[in-house]
């Protein structure tokens, strides 16, 4: 016959299920999150009202309906997302029908699986902390099945001690377990969903959508001083093809060596790049040596040989003052001058004025710069909707836009005047974290600028946005926008204290990324080499891991046998009574049970005989009829402390 669950244990099970499922709601479909909430609420209501379990046929119907809905939502069962969704539904359903210790163990096992499943979606420090809380709750719940009722403080301390004892084993596994390249989950159906960032196309409004995101795009830790703000341009897609509204990347070739001669001051830094499922490495202009696994594009951006589907760290050296493209290919220049045959007539007429007969390319560029500087264009997060002729609309009607409007109109005007120009997208600037000295570049730092080719000089970077809002480059987005613009919460000056909290958290997260998530095959090899271990093949690592685990087991066994045995709270209370009896000359013999010793001690102390006998009887009841109630144990200990033998 299976033992029924105690009410206290049922509450711990519900708490464990809530802590386990709650973080997954960030990725679960909303309807499934609602279903899990309803099932958990029904379980709590049953526990509070001591209601009978739902009919098994009804539970079976809910399980089949949930499985069919998951299949319909994801289109398949075999993958990370549908697998985790199905486990979450089964956990809540199993909890609703749980009535015995066996059922509780199945719920706890599902909870452990789902806590592991968190890391298939995210491996940040926050997720690790949530998984640790869920694991602690599951461990405490598992203990409650065997130890009975205890104070919450005692249970949490005991569960934390168990997790702490597993820490040495975790360290051995972390150091020696063979590292496998690639993400934790590799099924193509859903392995890399949800990654966002720059696109290889640009249309009005495309970059301003990113500005509202405070997500981190990458971090850069410089060996020395940071480059000045006007040189902090992180190169992404280079857009040369224009169809009248959108800009797209043109075809480019790649090479192992840079297609330019790097010159000027060098800045060495380590780039920690978040996954974005593209090839762009978003390096600072212009890198003078490609790191392993990367190549140079003919339009000067640095590319990874495969899409970035996991966080990477690379060491780079940039020389922002390099002037590339002095001997540019004629086909590239032709593509950088090409425009649609029709559209934006007013912009074409303006360009014709700049390209008056006899004007040199440098003079055309200067006249265009002066126009953008003097025309009082407004830099705004919320430009009006663009008309069909988007460039004309910006230059002559709305006169307000974001960086993509400025760069698009600027490059169009230069091309219409006969110059070779193109749009470059990426990130500009960055936010120095004073806690760890790392430059943090967010999605809100996304930017678009222009490059124009001048004979004898090559490609020159021109940022038309800076002509209307110079503060965008020198101090950041918030200072460049007009007064009264509604900014994201953490960009507002009155929330500086909140930014300080975020900076501390992000500094801790960066350490987590560098030392825990960044512990890849290369760093594992470097660490083991310091200890004289040159062979880091999986066979050697498996041997070292097994030896380390064996040593830990032997050390823990030795410690367990060597440490004094104090017993539990009930044993300590009984030992206190035996000590009082021994103080009166009535030491308990090794062969005496609690009732026998209680009768002998009561006979020797007639004034307290009734109390001694009652204490011995209560101790026997609590000791030999488990599980012992925590309140009863504490009451017995107080009676023994108050007892004065005469």
Automatic annotation (TrEMBL):
Residues 395-466 form the Transglutaminase-like domain. Keywords: Membrane, Transmembrane, Transmembrane helix. InterPro entries: Bact_TGase-like, Papain-like_cys_pep_sf, TgpA-like_C, TgpA_N, Transglutaminase-like. The keyword Membrane applies. The chain crosses the membrane at residues 57-74, 126-147, 159-177, 541-562. This is DUF3488 domain-containing protein. It comes from Pseudothauera lacus.
């Amino acid at each position: 016959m299976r033992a029924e669950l105690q009410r206290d244990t049922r509450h711990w099970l519900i708490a464990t299920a809530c802590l386990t499922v709650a973080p997954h709601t960030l990725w679960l479909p909303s309807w499934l999150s609602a279903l899990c909430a309803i099932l958990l609420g029904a379980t709590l209501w049953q526990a509070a009202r001591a209601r009978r379990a739902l009919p098994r046929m009804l539970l079976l119907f809910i399980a089949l309906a949930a499985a069919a809905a998951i299949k319909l939502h994801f289109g398949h069962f075999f993958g990370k997302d549908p697998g985790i969704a199905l486990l979450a539904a089964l956990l809540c359903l199993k909890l609703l029908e749980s009535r015995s210790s066996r059922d509780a163990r199945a719920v706890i096992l599902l909870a452990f699986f789902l806590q592991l499943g968190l890391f298939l979606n995210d491996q940040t420090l926050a997720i690790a902390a949530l998984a640790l809380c869920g694991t602690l709750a599951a461990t405490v719940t598992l203990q409650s099945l065997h130890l009975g009722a205890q104070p919450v403080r005692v249970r949490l301390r005991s569960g934390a001690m168990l997790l702490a004892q597993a820490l040495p084993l975790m360290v051995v596994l972390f150091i020696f377990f063979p590292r496998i390249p690639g993400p934790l989950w590799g099924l193509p159906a859903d392995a890399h969903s949800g990654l966002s960032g720059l696109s290889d196309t640009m249309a009005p409004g495309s970059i301003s959508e990113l500005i509202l995101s405070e997500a981190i795009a990458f971090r850069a830790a410089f060996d020395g001083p940071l480059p000045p703000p006007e040189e902090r341009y992180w190169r992404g897609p280079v857009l040369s093809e224009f169809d009248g509204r959108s800009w797209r990347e043109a075809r480019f070739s790649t090479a192992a060596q840079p297609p330019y001669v790097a010159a000027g001051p060098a800045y060495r830094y380590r780039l920690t790049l978040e996954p974005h499922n593209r090839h762009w490495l978003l390096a600072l202009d212009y890198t003078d040596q490609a790191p392993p696994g990367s190549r140079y594009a003919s339009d000067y951006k640095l590319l990874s040989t495969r899409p970035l589907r996991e966080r990477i760290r690379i060491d780079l050296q940039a020389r922002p003052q390099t002037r590339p493209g002095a001997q540019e290919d004629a086909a590239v220049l032709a593509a950088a001058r090409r425009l649609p045959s029709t559209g934006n007539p007013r912009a074409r007429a303006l360009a014709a004025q700049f390209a008056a007969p006899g004007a040199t390319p440098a003079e055309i560029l200067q006249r265009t710069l002066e126009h953008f500087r003097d025309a009082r264009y407004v830099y705004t997060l919320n430009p009006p909707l663009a008309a069909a002729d988007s460039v004309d609309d910006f230059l002559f009607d709305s006169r307000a836009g974001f960086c993509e409007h400025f760069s698009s109109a600027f490059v169009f005007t230069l091309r219409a005047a006969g110059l070779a120009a193109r749009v470059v997208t990426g990130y500009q600037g960055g936010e120095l974290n004073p806690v760890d000295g790392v430059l943090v570049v967010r999605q809100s730092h996304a930017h678009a600028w222009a490059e124009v080719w001048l004979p004898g000089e090559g490609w020159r970077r021109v940022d038309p946005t800076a002509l209307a809002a110079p503060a965008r480059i020198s101090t950041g987005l918030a200072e460049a926008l007009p007064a009264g613009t509604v900014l994201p919460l953490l960009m507002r000056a009155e929330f500086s204290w909140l930014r300080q909290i975020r900076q501390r958290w992000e500094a801790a997260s960066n350490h987590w990324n560098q030392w825990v998530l960044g512990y890849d095959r290369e760093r594992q090899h470097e660490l083991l080499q310091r200890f004289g271990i040159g062979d880091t093949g999986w066979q050697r690592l498996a041997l070292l891991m097994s030896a380390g685990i064996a040593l830990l087991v032997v050390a823990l066994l030795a410690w367990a046998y060597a440490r004094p045995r104090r017993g539990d709270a009930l044993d300590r209370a009984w030992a206190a009574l035996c000590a009082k009896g021994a103080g009166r000359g009535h030491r308990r013999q090794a062969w005496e049970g609690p009732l026998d010793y209680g009768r002998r001690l009561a006979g020797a102390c007639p004034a307290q005989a009734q109390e001694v006998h009652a204490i011995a009887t209560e101790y026997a009841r609590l000791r030999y009829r488990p599980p012992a109630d925590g309140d009863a144990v504490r009451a017995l200990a107080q009676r023994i402390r108050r007892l004065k033998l005469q």
